[in-house]
Every structure is written in structure tokens, then in C-alpha cells.
């Protein structure tokens, strides 16, 4: 994940299976004959590191993240980790696979970031990225709407979450001239969630966190209640009580 001292691994991993599936799908499509150095950029709690190790036996697998809390969780499984700002991270030597699952969307300046990441690959290397494409979905849109209303409005006036990612065509134009191969695709997952206001719980592990962290403790319950109320008509329960969360994600594989 990008730099954020408030990351809570336990909250993020409440939906670990749902959050891991895109990583499973992305790893399965990486084609490299025998990488020696593989980096998970923005590894978070490290739940994708075993996938990479299984896919690339014998490779040196390293998780990079800015959050000490997340790295403590990732390192507990025995994988090598390093703390660094993923916006400016530079390897000591070219890397064979740079993998990033749900991390780079937190960073601005993709016009410079993605060509730079491609330049860090060894010949024949692969940049494999997945990012949520949810900025216009109620889950994300209502965070800003609720933040602009109520007694917390002044406190949250300059607070925001992950910025919108670029349009698919923009990533194509950025990478196609620089890459030997490029695959882009979207997948919309439908997550079956359970419990009280489960979409709020989902958002608290990621995109809602900057808003919650900026509030004094006394305001947090009322803000979360207002967000939950705004979300309920958008994500009504199904007949069995489950709440279905459609979640769209953007994938890219660029090879040198």
C-alpha cells in the first residue's frame, strides 16, 4: 500500500478471500520463463506473496510497502520485505517481475509512474498490475458526499481517498510504445457479503480509511452511521440477507 500510517491489517483482511481473488487471477496470467527477482510492490499484509512464490519457485520474492503495520504482518510468513515509498521505490538491480495488486491506484502521477516502473524491468520482464476501477461507484462516490455534509465537513474538507485511475486508453497510449507486449482487461467481481452494513466494513479496510482516520474519535460513530445510511439503498440485501457488492477492477500485463 501507499504511505498511510493508519493501515489496519486485521480490518483489511476481514475480506481477505475476496481481496485475494484478483491477485490469483493476475498471477495466473503472468508469463515469464524463469524470473530470478520478483517484487510485490505495495504488498500490504503479504497475502499475495505465497501465490508468487508458488508460481515462481526458486525466485527471490520481496514485498515492498510503506506501512510498518502491514509489513509486520507480511514478514511473519517468512518472506523478505522492505519498507519504502512505492511511488519512488527503485531496485538495486533490474527486476524480472513487478507485481502490484490494489496498491498503485493510491498514487497520483500515473503518466510518469507507469513508464518508470516499466523501465525498472530486466529484458523480458513483466509489469503485472491490478487496480480498483470504482471511483464512480456508490461505495466511493458516497464517501465524498457524506464527508461534505454534517458536523465533520470542515474537518474533512481537504481529506480524500485514492484518486481516479486513468482511462484504459491512456494506459494503452502510455505503455504500448514502450512495451513488447501489452494486455489490458476489466473484471467485475460480485462479492457476497454478510453482517451488519458489510459494505461499510469493506470500505473501512481501504478507501474509507483516510476519512475515518482524520476524524476525532467522538465524530467517527456518527460519520460511519451516516455513510451506512447512504449506502443501504444502493446495496440492498438479497432475499437470503446477503449484500451483493459489484466491484470492478482493471488489469494490465506489460512485458519488455
TrEMBL record:
CDD domains: AdoMet_MTases
Domain of life: Bacteria
InterPro entries for this protein: SAM-dependent_MTases_sf, Trans_acon_MeTrfase_C
One GO BP annotation of this record: methylation
A GO term, aspect molecular function: trans-aconitate 2-methyltransferase activity
Keywords: Methyltransferase, Transferase
Name recorded for this polypeptide: Methyltransferase domain-containing protein
